[in-house]
TrEMBL record:
<feature type="transmembrane region" description="Helical">
    <location>
        <begin position="105"/>
        <end position="129"/>
    </location>
</feature>
<dbReference type="InterPro" id="IPR045621">
    <property type="entry name" value="BPD_transp_1_N"/>
</dbReference>
<keyword id="KW-0614">Plasmid</keyword>
<feature type="transmembrane region" description="Helical">
    <location>
        <begin position="12"/>
        <end position="31"/>
    </location>
</feature>
<feature type="transmembrane region" description="Helical">
    <location>
        <begin position="241"/>
        <end position="267"/>
    </location>
</feature>
<keyword id="KW-0812">Transmembrane</keyword>
<dbReference type="GO" id="GO:0005886">
    <property type="term" value="C:plasma membrane"/>
</dbReference>
<feature type="transmembrane region" description="Helical">
    <location>
        <begin position="150"/>
        <end position="174"/>
    </location>
</feature>
<protein>
    <submittedName>
        <fullName>ABC transporter permease</fullName>
    </submittedName>
</protein>
<comment type="similarity">
    <text>Belongs to the binding-protein-dependent transport system permease family.</text>
</comment>
<feature type="transmembrane region" description="Helical">
    <location>
        <begin position="180"/>
        <end position="200"/>
    </location>
</feature>
<dbReference type="Pfam" id="PF00528">
    <property type="entry name" value="BPD_transp_1"/>
</dbReference>
<dbReference type="InterPro" id="IPR035906">
    <property type="entry name" value="MetI-like_sf"/>
</dbReference>
<dbReference type="InterPro" id="IPR000515">
    <property type="entry name" value="MetI-like"/>
</dbReference>
<feature type="domain" description="ABC transmembrane type-1">
    <location>
        <begin position="101"/>
        <end position="306"/>
    </location>
</feature>
<keyword id="KW-1003">Cell membrane</keyword>
<keyword id="KW-0813">Transport</keyword>
């Protein structure tokens, strides 16, 4: 059993490496195909031809595209993502990442935890009260939550809980490296803005899965054997319902990262998302490529973890 699980992990990891390389190639060539010149953006329209040529030579921008891609991949495998071209010229991308990644990871994990807690409670309560008013209210709120974009929810939360009630700061974020309590307080509204649409989706999935599993044959057998409702729910209904629930969590990570980029801008969070936006405006290739590759690796790794959890919940999926 352990060998089969290890083989499954190795197979999935090999697939991740191939997908990461393909994703890196897409990001690299898409950036080169985009309009604009990083040399002119960094030096200004009035720069001389000699200065522009020196800039291109310094950053290997005068090399053929395949050579540039090969150099970038080779350096990235050593953990060297180059240096910023424009927004922090000459600064190592690794250094910029090290400063901002903790903030982005904290907000992302915070949002996932909030979304899972909200949906576990709402989905379970709705399923156990199927057809009643509380079920109608929960499913209606979930339907509305799915249709609302996270940036709009962010502005509503700022207006209600920051400007109106004054419970949370409207702008700015205290890094968890400085103060965990400050990060939990200042990061609550941005995390909730990202979590709300995800929680709505998770609630609908969990409710449907719980109702579906409650009417399966093995549950009827468990009832006929005299098992109590709590035992049946925990061991035969909730356990099987968690498989699609966990799968959806993994799929939502990509939207979480996309939402983080926007939410960081709205709430003034100094994270990787806001760094990526600044780099896009400055045509800063090394930063954009490093951000995109990091987000891609996070999505792929999370999907491996989700796959392993589902395999452990149901060994027949192995």
């Amino acid at each position: 059993m352990a060998f089969a699980l290890l083989r499954h992990v190795v197979t999935r990891s090999a697939g991740v490496l191939i997908l990461a390389l393909m994703g890196a190639a897409v990001v690299f060539f898409a950036m080169r195909a985009a309009p604009g010149d990083p040399a002119l953006t960094a030096l200004g329209e009035g720069a001389s031809t000699e200065t522009i040529a020196a800039f291109r030579a310094r950053w290997n921008l005068d090399e053929p595209l395949l050579v540039q891609f090969g150099l970038w991949v080779a350096n990235a495998l050593r953990g060297d993502f180059g240096q910023s071209l424009s927004i922090a010229s000459g600064t190592a991308v690794y250094s910029l990442f090290a400063d901002r990644l903790p903030n982005t990871l904290f907000i992302g994990v915070y949002a996932i935890i909030l979304a899972v807690l909200i949906s576990l409670i709402a989905g379970t309560v709705a399923a156990l009260n199927r057809g009643k008013i509380i079920d109608t209210v929960a499913t209606s709120i979930a339907a509305a939550g799915i249709s609302m974009p996270d940036f709009w929810i962010g502005y509503v939360l700022i207006y209600a809980f920051a400007l109106g009630l004054g419970w949370f700061p409207a702008y700015g974020f205290i890094s968890p490296v400085e103060s965990l309590g400050g990060a939990l307080l200042s990061g609550f509204l941005p995390a909730l803005a990202i979590a709300a649409p995800m929680a709505a989706s998770f609630t609908r999935i969990l409710r449907s899965a719980l109702i579906d599993n409650a009417h399966r044959d093995h549950v009827r057998v468990a009832r006929s054997l005299g098992h109590g409702p709590s035992f049946i729910f925990l061991h035969h209904v909730l356990r099987n319902a968690l498989i699609p629930f966990v799968t959806v969590i993994g799929l939502q990570v990509r939207y979480l990262l996309g939402g983080t980029v926007v939410i960081e801008r709205i709430f003034g969070i100094n994270g990787v998302g806001s760094l990526m936006i600044d780099a896009a405006f400055g045509r800063d290739y090394p930063i954009i490529q490093a951000c995109a590759l990091t987000f891609l690796l996070i999505v792929l790794l999370v999907n491996i973890v989700v796959d392993l959890i589902c395999t452990m919940l149901n060994p027949r999926m192995r």
